[in-house]
Amino acid sequence: MTDKIYDLGAGFWSIRGSFIKNGILDIGNQCALVKLQSGRFILLDSYTLTGDVRDQVMALTNEGRDVEAVLNVHPFHTVHCAQVAKDFPQAIFYGSSRHRKQVPEVQWADDLVESEAVAQRYPELEFSLPQGIYYISPDESVHASSLLVFHPASKSIYVDDTFEISPSKLFDAVLPELGLHPTTKKALKDEPNAGKQYCDWVTQLAHDWRDVHHFCAAHSGLVTFEEGKFEASLLSAIDRARPELEAS
Fold it and tell me: In this predicted structure, what is the pLDDT of residue 75?
């Protein structure tokens, strides 16, 4: 798959890339470029830019010098961090505690990416951390949680793994069908009402971010929702899952 960059308007660019799983299947990858009110930029996630996409990003960002920070929002997406740190040496690198352990050669910022300090630093964005499930699961195969990001100006949601579009529904222009990551149940915290906490978080998120138009997911591609459809689709997904998750 050839990497592509999509201008979603209002200073938000979705970058679609590749991730070859088991040496066979390309399940896709992503990062995003966001222009701040200051005129500078941040990257959401680390992905090695090449070819035309790299040229476009460099042209937008004064050859990369105007990229002030990289926010690595999924604790298990670490493959490209070291290279992107080399490509943007002046950028502040934010990550989870797992990023620091997995990629110690990167000079990580003291503030964790999911901290309130980082959220306050970038008022152009809204952040939400899933409740009731582990952000960094003790089981290395469970990747359900990630720090979700919403860019109100472009009505774009940026999400790694936590929510996804069913492959059979990717081309359904009427109502793309949202689903939860398949490891969500395994990601539940070992505490009372964890399932209810997660379901209530999803429900509130659907209401709070109901204006989502562009859905940018790591492995589901770039999908567009008509007005009001994101909220309806996410509520439908959590309503289907709630009985099983709350019974766990």
Answer: 96
